[in-house]
Structure prediction request, 866 residues.
Amino acid sequence: MNSEDIRGFFASKEQLDMADYLTLDYYLECVGDIETALAHFCSEQSTAQWKRVDQDEDFRPRYAAKVISLTVEGELAALSYPVQHFESGPVHACRVTIAHPHCNFGTKLPNLLSAVCGEGVFFTPGIPVVKLLDIGFPDSYLKAFDGPKFGIDGIRDLLQAYNRPIFFGVVKPNIGLTPAQFAEIAYQSWLGGLDIAKDDEMLADVDWSTLIERSRVLGEARVRAERETGEPKIYLANITDEVDRLLEQHDIAVSNGANALLVNAFPIGLSAVRMLARHTKVPLIGHFPFIAAFSRMEKYGVHSRVMTKLQRLAGLDSIIMPGFGSRMMTPEEEVKANIAECLQDFGHLKRSLPVPGGSDSALTLETVYRKVGSVDFGFVPGRGVFGHPMGPKAGATSIRQAWEAIEQGIELERYAVGRAELQVMVDGANGKK
Amino acid sequence: MNSEDIRGFFASKEQLDMADYLTLDYYLECVGDIETALAHFCSEQSTAQWKRVDQDEDFRPRYAAKVISLTVEGELAALSYPVQHFESGPVHACRVTIAHPHCNFGTKLPNLLSAVCGEGVFFTPGIPVVKLLDIGFPDSYLKAFDGPKFGIDGIRDLLQAYNRPIFFGVVKPNIGLTPAQFAEIAYQSWLGGLDIAKDDEMLADVDWSTLIERSRVLGEARVRAERETGEPKIYLANITDEVDRLLEQHDIAVSNGANALLVNAFPIGLSAVRMLARHTKVPLIGHFPFIAAFSRMEKYGVHSRVMTKLQRLAGLDSIIMPGFGSRMMTPEEEVKANIAECLQDFGHLKRSLPVPGGSDSALTLETVYRKVGSVDFGFVPGRGVFGHPMGPKAGATSIRQAWEAIEQGIELERYAVGRAELQVMVDGANGKK
Prediction:
């Protein structure tokens, strides 16, 4: 491209009607001339050839993606990751904001993904290393999306649970239990104090535990637990399946007594989530398989914040995500960014309940609560409840006791005295088990 | 885990009925004790807790993933990529094969993805760096999949084109043309010798070029081109859209005269591809947006070969993929592996037509042909046809001339003499333009 060509891919925000554009923040490593690489970056993700041969026309003013902000962070000795590429020259780390005209693809999630993480973005000459950091949406674009149908407030109303976290538990063993065995364990955990007993993300409709049978016996067990405790409870059924079975699986599970549904958001696809969110009669909760495959590298791929934002946009009422602590291999600021994406203002869209998870128990509740900084989160132990030495009921009780200690401002070890369920956990941590 | 616990996650192939298992090849970087890390790797992706508290049971024999092969490649000074993690100790690069019991999830693509690239795989204590390299399927598992409905042979029969590559062209400008302008350009390219004129992966159903109108005028233009040339032609319409609109978009496009359909496979989701493949009346062709985001790092994420295999399993008759040369930032052996995934035996599944692409023209055809090593591929220029200085008809002709030169064993520069369309391309490469 010559310098005239390049200029067509740069603009200032003031020159554009920003209601017509998404804003895309990227980290880029540019090889060779920076402006040339950035013009290609815009061209490749929008109008790769902006006129017909021998026609006097220019599609760039309306259809081109345009650089509206550039910060050169510095020159690097080499690319951060070895990638075969064509260009040669100095390597610069850059932060850019691109204004991408959404009329190029419309308010459709698969087409949006193709634009912001597609061939153009990842195969631009001179930009072998790229990470999509964030997407900004004008309200005019957001209007086309319904977002969460229930959101945090809807889940709280369903459970009549306010001013505290929502207590989930992943029934374990996650794979191998018959529906009847599964129901008995879930029942115990509800009696002990869980709000939501859930299927593992790996357990869906399989011949040794069909969704129809599991949701039937779990629905019955839930009603018994509600009667016994006088509290509303949720059985969260995993209906992850082929996309053309999702609506039917929803109907089966809900009519049998599942009163919230789990899907593995990225494996079924964000568009399938959106379809299901329109149809659902109960809260829809997403789990995070696959996302780490493209979000873990610091300087390559897609930031997990983008996926959290898109999951909320697609309509998930609650989003399970990798939580705090080095166990989950996710930097603390990234977990906090994902939680913020659930809770912060986002056009007219309801808030999603963030559920930062990973090897939790009564012992980790206070840390998670302090780091989240509010009660608006879900807490999701697995073995911390279902591997409790005294059984799942005691496991669930230990979680509620840990919350009581926090509420009352009493140190966990002191609060455990005389409370066997919590004491066992504290002793275990101190090696007294 | 103690050594007894660990042993439950190791087996030899001979001890297992391999028809019950998928085989998963991973590259792993293990921190600390290797066997402990690998047992966790199997446990986390299958039965994370394999017995209930106080029950004498063991779900591992039937439900556990198991290491059936381990090669320690060597000790590393550090992880290949910095990842926050919990464990400490020596770091070893390992290649493992895991036997994963498919009864845990069944013959469903979203559940398969959740198992092989999910939380368990990417969040195993002691394994911060992981790349899924390949999946092996027993025939008993493959039987549940229809695979490509047409395959290479079906596409050849449709075009009556044998013993040569299939000549695609991406109509450019890709964004901004009215349907009528688009149809005229495509028409010219068919006259010049293209088999298939296609929508760009970024152009789908938008208000300034609706699918209904574009497929109508392109369908008419195709029939005119067929009449004029006496050869069957294909208009490849991009129906990438929200999943609940895909079948309707198929019906609209096909009834209007599109005789093959393009989808962005990963953005719509592999399960949506499978749904569409069952429904389709015409060949279904996939494009590759998003895949680079998790496949480009040498030692992290998911190898693109896995995605090619799953796209064929889902039923794509042809798979567009990043092609040869450093322009597309993909090592040559990786491109070849992806082509092989389309062509090699794969249970009862038909072969998919591989289309390795990226900035191609008459000048690159021979290289691609030699590297593929057979005529069973699609060749897909964009600007190489539609940016040709003499226009799209001449652009398409230059491609066919380049193929004639190859067929006749004549050097391109010599064959160009007296053939203006090819001569212009050769001159351009030599800086005579």
